[in-house]
Amino acid sequence: MSIFRNRTTTAALVAVAAGALTLTACGGGSGSSAKDNSKSKEDAKSQSKPVQIGDAKASTGPAAEVPGAKAGGTATVYQEADFSHLDPGQIYVSDGKLLSRLIYRGLTQYSEDDQGNLTVVGDLATDAGKVSDGGKTWTYTLKSGLKDENGNPINSADIRHTVERLYATYITDGPTYLQQWLSGAGTTYRDAYAGPDKGKHLPDSVLETPDDKTVVFHFKDAQPDLPQMLTMPGYSLVPEETDTKEKYDNDPVSSGPYKIADFKPGKSMKLVKNTQWDPKSDSVRHQYVDGFNIEMNHDDEDQTKTLLADQGDAKNAMMFTGQVATTQLQAVVGDKSVMGKRTIEGYAPYVWQLNFNLDRVKDKKLRDAITLALPASSVFKADGGAYGGETANSLMSPTTPGYDEKYDPFNRAKKPNGDIEAAKKLIEEGGFKGKKLVYAYGNTPVRQQQAVLIADALEKIGLDIQKKEIDSATWYEQVGKVKNGYDLYMTGWGQDWPSASTVFPPLYDGTTIQDGASNYSHINDEHVNSEIARIVKITDTAQATKAWDALNKYITEKVNPAAPIYYTKVFQIFGSNIGGIRYSSDSSYVDVTRVFLKK
Length: 599
What we know:
The chain is α+β, with helices and mostly antiparallel strands. The protein has 16 helices and 21 strands.
């Protein structure tokens, strides 16, 4: 779940999971007088609880009423940048996930309680799925009366099309779990099937639609996590008759409670009620507000100042993936009328890491030197202080089952802001002094500040860092290119659901390397590849968790494709008239399905 890939989150993990997904008190210019009451690793551990599987009753709408909720009015949303994609098959980042919760639906979805416990329920389907054949066959039955925003009935042919179009070559940035589970590991799934544009369907032995309401998945191996995986926005419905293929980003069709009424790329988006959405068919979402006006080009500082002032239209305004700005932490934390009343906090599932492009940064000693030198503490404080994150000791997040807090190969506990002397020694041993490296970063204030911190530290150990600024709206598309032209770049990843199986395969499996894939470092290690192939088949959760932990240590110590920098937390503020706000363990931000205006 990148930033994040939500791959949350987790989760996604996730979520992480992606994932995505940042932030209260004493660091990064917030002032040492502010007490750090931010979320801890204990909170993170509680977020790694197993997901429950809901039955047909839990999947039946309408959703339980939010206490005090009222209908009417339009909420304003502040966003820093545009959405990178609107095509569900291309969505794999956090802001896209929040939008998806409002306008799209898939076969399954998460229902969440006030304690953050997640239950997979049927969304378009009547339940979370019926499993047979030892976990290899999953059957879904669609609910009755489902329609898209145009009033067209939603049937099994639409689900089949939604799955088959993911094989098309123009789908480059979304998740690939389902395709690989159905048709082959790595990038070989496209070898088995060219996509619906070639006039053929996946064979019934793989994907079967015996009638208008029934969808049957046939896998080669047991896939116990299918219900969780299908909750991802990347598997949301794309109706067959309105699919414009490569152009679907421009005018997608809604199946959720809201639809896009107006969209000015890079500037604004207006959501209004989708009158074809039936609350009786949806056990998760609400349709309290009349719509959402999403305004772009508001950075975190702008969002925080405006929402804290709480004047005029800002009273009806909210963040999606925005965070309380580092410069405003003390003002927010010190205001008792705001804290806990107009704010939410959570320990997000993301690990921010500095990726080494292994096609260009080939010497492990150089990678180790850079990792040792990174000013992790300063970098995370630039992203919201103690409420924004904490120094990462591992490529695994504290929200991921199997996380080992004591594993600290780069001595982050004692040297949280880098070990310059140890790094210099490796630079001298390897003869790397004066070596030029291109460091790419996003064009937002936080990323710009972090770029300065990282470049300064690496120049102290004798490297020549060439900074390259990139449009944040297309960040993952740019660094996701195999031949991206960069040596170093930060990415954030969270689990897609509470399992390391949603972290290591997408990030470190060498068979997945292609444009748009999440193997940002281009690691292609034979042992890593074979271990991933072995571990994903382990059905015993405890055994699999132990194996992922061992692989994590091998990747870090023997290869070091990415340097862990910091774990993320979420700290958001809202206008005083926004009701129903709570942190979501699923999205790692505010739960947008509950929002209403108080008056």
